[in-house]
Amino acid sequence: xxxxxxxxxxxxxxxxxxxxxxxxxxxxxxxxxxxxxxxxxxxxxxxxxxxxxxxxxxxxxxxxxxxxxxxxxxxxxxxxxxxxxxxxxxx
Length: 91
Known about the structure:
Hist_DNA-bd, DNA-binding, structural constituent of chromatin, HU Protein, Chain A, 91 residues, elongated, DNA-binding protein HU-beta, alpha+beta, IHF-like_DNA-bd_dom_sf
């Protein structure tokens, strides 16, 4: 399912226009992104939670040449599925 398919499904399920569903989805995504940028956490009970974790700088290896390279530190987004979501997927 891509973004367009999700918008169509949301509109059909909620009985709203595709424009309203698109606006709702974009608002949700912007709010999640904004919260994560500030270092916060987004939690939807039963569905899951998003958080930001810091990955330290480290040495890596170029697979083509075998040469050691430096990999910069960065923030990574993590998602942990909630119990209800995991239960629904594993039925």
